[in-house]
Write a structure and sequence with these properties.
122 residues, alpha+beta, Gyrase A, domain 2, 4 helices, 4 strands
Length: 122
C-alpha cells in the first residue's frame, strides 16, 4: 500500500465520537462495516482493552465501537489516541500481511507491539 492509499484509508476510517458520558464512549467508523469477521472483532476488542483504564470494548458492524472506561485512569482523548495508534499499526502491518486473514491472537500481538510504542510516547 503506497503513502497516498494509506492517507486516503486513514482519513476514511478515522473514528468519530457519537457519544461520551464519561464512562462509556461510542465511536463510529466506516471501517466497522468492512471487518472481515469474528476474528477481527475479537482481536480489536482485546487490543482496545489493553489500554489501562479501559474496562470493556465491543465492536459491532452496525453500531461501531463501544468502550467502557474508568475516567480516573483514562479519558476520551487517551482512548482516541490509542485507537489511532492501533489503526496506524494495522496500516503499517498491511504492507507485509493480509490483515483479513489474521487470527484474533495475531491481531492481539500487533496490539501488544503498539502498546509498547504508545507507552514510550506518553
Amino acid at each position: 500500500m503506497n503513502a497516498i492509499e494509506k492517507a486516503i484509508l486513514r482519513h476514511t476510517v478515522r473514528p468519530k465520537v457519537l457519544s461520551d458520558d464519561g464512562e462509556r464512549l461510542v465511536l463510529t467508523s466506516a471501517a466497522a462495516k468492512f471487518l472481515p469477521g469474528e476474528n477481527a472483532r475479537e482481536g480489536i476488542e482485546r487490543c482496545i482493552r489493553m489500554l489501562p483504564g479501559v474496562e470493556e470494548a465491543a465492536v459491532d458492524s452496525a453500531k461501531g465501537l463501544t468502550v467502557s472506561y474508568n475516567i480516573a485512569e483514562v479519558n476520551r482523548d487517551g482512548i482516541l489516541q490509542w485507537v489511532d495508534t492501533l489503526m496506524e499499526t494495522a496500516l503499517n502491518a498491511a504492507d507485509t500481511r493480509d490483515m483479513t486473514k489474521l487470527s484474533a491472537d495475531e491481531i492481539e500481538a500487533l496490539g501488544r507491539e503498539a502498546l509498547t510504542s504508545f507507552r514510550q510516547r506518553a
